[in-house]
Amino acid sequence: MLKVENVTKYYGNFKAVDNLSFTVKEGEIFGLLGVNGAGKTTTFRMIIGLLSKSVGSITLDDKPIDYSVTDNIGFLTEERSLLTKLTVLEQAIYYGVLKGLTKEEAEKRLDEWLEFFGIKEYKNRKIKELSKGNQQKVQFITAIINNPKLLILDEPFSGLDPINAEMFMKAIKIFKKRGSMIIFSSHRMEQVEQFCENLVVLVNGKSVLAGNLKKIKKDFGKKNIHIIGDVDTEKIKDINGVNEVVEEANEIIVKIEDDSIAPKVFEVVKKSKDITKFVIEEPSLNEIFVSIVGEAYENQN
User: Fold this and answer.
1) Helix (H, G, I), strand (E, B), or coil: what is residue 4?
2) Which CATH architecture describes the domain 222-282?
3) pLDDT tens per residue, range 233-249
4) Which residues does 234 contact at the CB level (< 8 Å), separation at least 6?
5) Tell me: domain 2-216, CATH 3.30.70.920, correct?
């Protein structure tokens, strides 16, 4: 288990991370979310030992993280960190040996992942000759080549098209099944919803939302009603407790304060014709994120 306990990080007088605590269990994908500058990357770097903590403790299986355990950690950075003049094979061997593998082991694992991503033909190509998407695949492979027990993914889907993003998701799920602890950061909330059971949202280095994703959605209270059909949206807007009515191309989304408003909306909708959908759903993580983060910024200013 990874434990981050009451961790604070100062850069001079600037507090980049403020009393942060969370745990990640084996086989769990944990979301660490926030806007740019929220403290996510600083937290990642403290976890792997690249930055020292000002206050608090970080342990992996009850042991401080130092060079004796870093071979069990994989870190995919948001920035490109490839040596572009090397070939894919040379890059993999370089990182593999740094993580305690033999050259033969590194090459064998590289071959397996190149097969998985469908880019076997690039094995002896130089990194600079690859597209950005394929460079991202190679960077991911170098992060996981040591079969890490703890895997940190900072914006892993950045710049990927939907097909390649799906391949990355399949690869991440492989490590989840193996029992790896995975910390995942992304601005694409729909992917966070697919992966993460638990999460923390940071604003200016401080946790403003934390816990189980299902419980967070339930406790948020607000709901969305999805309607397909010819309805009088003006009458719906007049209902007390309706926050917003969004008319999209194929459906109408009614944002309500809580479940008690739904019957009032239904009373209006049932008088309409050709209604093929009336579904009450919890808000998306993106809606919750925008609401919570926006409120946190307002409270700090």
Assistant:
1) strand
2) 2-Layer Sandwich (3.30)
3) 999 999 999 999 999 98
4) none
5) no
